Amino acid sequence: MPATTFEFQVEARQLLQLMIHSIYSNKDVFLRELVSNASDALDKLRLEKLRDDALDADVSDLHIGIDVDKEARTLTVRDNGIGMSYDEVGQLIGTIANSGTAQFLQELREAKDEAGAEGLIGRFGVGFYSGFMVADEVTLVTRRAGEDRGTRWTSRGEGTYTLEAVDDAPQGTSITLHLKPADPENQLHDYTDPWKIREIVKRYSDFITWPVRMVPESAATDGDGDGGEAPAPETLNSTKALWARPRDEVSDDEYHELYKHIGHDWQDPLETIRLQAEGTFEYQALLFLPAHAPHDLFTRDSKRGVQLYVKRVFIMDDCEALLPPYLRFVKGVVDAADLSLNVSREILQQDRHIEMMRRRLTKKVLSTVKDMKAKDQDRYATFWREFGTVLKEGLVTDPETRDAILAVASFASTHDETEPTTLKQYVERMKDGQDDIYYLTGESRQAIENSPHMEAFRSRGIEVLLLTDAVDEVWADAVGEYEGKRLRSVAKGQIDLGAEDEDSSDGGREQQAEEYAGLLGWMQEQLDEDIKEVRLSSRLTVSPACIVSDAHDLTPALENMYRAMGQEVPRAKRILELNPDHHLVKGLNRTYREREDRTELAETAELLHGLAVLAEGGQPKEPARFVKLMTGRLERTL
User: Fold this and answer.
1) What is the pLDDT of residue 365?
2) Phi, psi angles (nearest 5°) of residue 264
3) Domain 243-383 classified CATH 3.30.230.80?
4) Fewest beta carbons less than 10 Å away: which of 58, 211, 279, 593?
5) How far is CA 453 from CA 162, 352, 494, in A?
């Protein structure tokens, strides 16, 4: 098959230009990315061979090789891993939009510092193209394991690339970088010097489980030409898994580099967690809590789970069975001693050993967060800011760990504008005679604090939790209570905080109920299509009215959430509460009792209902009619 020339897509050309003109001062990352890709290819071949014994592939000496040619100024990184077919090269190398190039470019422009920009290379799977930072031309030769013919890909990064089939390609992939001319003023970037290669591999890739080999520099120049044996390649990395080495033999930097490799992150992890289980079922775990949430944390197709090894043999990426979905941000490695090497995802879901590991790992992660909360408030604050929302999902989906999650959870509260509170602290501050833990959900702290539902609680100095995450609508009902104290929304059901002044000017509650009975019944008839009840309120002190849900009804936000997930739920009628001490409500009642023609009064009732809906962030059923009524009323007051 003759060589064929193709054009890069527009976004691909933009990315290549950024690479070629070197947006990164630390060019060493190109070798880190190429070695990392080679390691992944070896992992995939080992796994493919385990699943298919008939696969025609040599797995006797899987390794990564690095060759340097000073005279030709080339650097080659090769592996004998899974390789790629002709079509795969075109799809994965020629069309890099599949790797999320558009988002990569956007985030690259928004990156605030060098470190942040540098990490985006691996994070978006475009590490191969980092070779253009140091090379004028890149040649890739690959053959997929089990196939007869290989493929050669070549490009100078100038908008086009060539593809051709080749017959003599070895199994795996080799990438040859035709390096840019040497910079005599900056020898630190001379990637033809073996010492530089050693330094980069040791710094970034010492944790790679496959040997990274380089032919000693003397091999290219020594020898007397008499056919003597070439020196053995030098292994540049330790090849011993970090999780299998004693703790005192592994530095924090080594742990951090492993995390960056498996997490495709540029920042150090927030916390490193080691766990070793011995006995009837042995395994080792090395887990990491990231310092920031990944961009796809809440997307449906996001990858989650940790890497699974069996007796140091890589089995699968993103093993979802090892951690619950609400810990999907945790990265790391779990190495089990007693699982089958050909274990599948379906088998894992039913394996009792996996279930034991899942419970133990979950418990360890949550206890680590609890320790962090007790010992380092700054790091805990970072963790909760980034992952608190997703962790609270476990309050709904995992009742067994509910107490452990509540022990590390914190919430905004009216008690303090800057410092969050725990439920334990809330209970300790509860007023005498208070039996419930009060909360209110909303889009923001400001919106909640301005809600009419908060008025009586504010005037009486009763603390309210301010919950602004979507999951808060669900978990509070699911949990129900904490230490015998009921969790109660201030926007649902009857709230009786006790009157501040039982001898008010309008008399006691019974007198008010009798006085307003006629108005309440009449308004019930007028607004019957939209509300189930009109009643007097004990939660309002400033506003004339508010809308509340019945104690066991879904809130509007929860109704919308279910509908967004494709579940049809009936729209529940809600309750309109009136403040009997507000001048507008008093005037409304007086007019009702004095006039028989209540046409204008009906409009006032409709406006009052619409204003209550607006006050909680909702929208009147007929916005245009509401505006027309309000405009007319304003005109008559001028």
Assistant:
1) 97
2) 50, 50
3) yes
4) 279
5) 67, 49, 12
- Judged by DSSP in three states, 135 sits in strand
On whether the CB atoms of residues 515 and 589 are closer than 8 A, the answer is yes
Residues 258-262: contacts with CB under 8 Å, at least 24 apart: 258/207, 258/286, 258/333, 259/288, 259/290, 259/331, 259/332, 260/119, 260/122, 261/36, 261/122, 261/204, 261/205, 261/207, 261/208, 262/307, 262/331, 262/332, 262/333
User: In terms of DSSP H, where are the helices of 284-429?
Assistant: 345-348, 352-375, 377-391, 394-397, 402-408, 423-429
Strands of the sheet with 574-578, listed across from one edge? 531-536, 574-578, 545-548
Percent of the chain with pLDDT over 70: 86
- CATH numeric code, 509-550+569-637: 1.20.120.790
Residues 6+ apart with CB under 8 A from 166: 141, 149, 150, 151, 152
Which residues in the chain come in under a pLDDT of 70?
Answer: 1, 9-15, 18-25, 94-126, 185-189, 216-230, 340-343, 498-507
The single-letter code of the amino acid at 429 is: R
Task: Give the span between the Cα atoms of 88 and 66, in whole angstroms.
Answer: 24
Backbone angles phi, psi at 50, to 5 degrees: -65, -35
Domain ranges in the chain are 4-218, 243-383, 410-489, 509-550+569-637
Q: Which two tokens stand for residue 447?
A: 């919106």
Closest CA to 330 of 395, 275, 282, 281: 275
Question: Which residue in this structure is represented by tokens 């996996």?
Answer: 354
CA dist., res. 365 & res. 361, Å (int): 6
Phi, psi of 132, deg, nearest 5: -75, -10
